[in-house]
Design brief:
2 domains, 162 residues
Length: 162
């Protein structure tokens, strides 16, 4: 070990460190929403995920809402079961969540932001599941190209109308 001087991080005021009781941490809300996103993309129920990690579905619900914090070992276990790297749970985090700023406690703000994401809509999840049920890789690739073509034609039509 070297004798280098370690510079301590600046101390935050006590009222900056903790959220009021009953207010979930924005990072916990984000991580929970990513657990929910991946679970639903896989078509897995809360009950099945709970069984895989030895918890009740109610505990999974609390994790997904951010009401209960997910510990490091549990997050590692969830990453293995959901087949994603641990970093997946922290991807696409808002700046306010990164700063640990609460969005109003139990208000609907975090949920509204989640629903605005097209990846969390039921229609998107059903489309992704149907796509992966197509067994023939060539057909699946053609379907992918068709969807991209249709999306581009919508953009082209909108440009023509402007």
């Amino acid at each position: 070990m070297t004798n280098e001087q370690i510079t301590p991080l600046p101390r935050r005021e006590a009222n900056e460190r903790r959220l009021p009781p009953g207010v979930p941490n924005p990072i916990d809300i984000h991580v929970g929403s990513r657990v929910r996103l991946r679970r639903t993309l896989l078509g897995m129920s809360q009950e099945k995920l709970g069984e895989a990690v030895g918890l009740t579905f109610q505990q999974i619900q609390k994790y997904e809402r951010g009401a209960n914090r997910i510990g490091a070992s549990r997050l590692y276990e969830l990453s293995r079961i959901l087949d994603v790297p641990i970093s997946f749970f922290f991807d696409d985090m808002t700046e306010s969540a990164q700063a640990g700023v609460a969005d109003g406690g139990f208000s609907d703000t975090p949920q509204a932001a989640l629903e605005a994401d097209p990846l969390t809509r039921r229609e998107t999840l059903e489309l992704v599941r149907a796509y992966y049920r197509v067994n023939n890789p060539q057909v699946r690739r053609r379907l992918f190209e068709l969807a991209k073509s249709l999306a581009n034609s919508d953009v082209d039509l909108a440009d023509d109308e402007s």
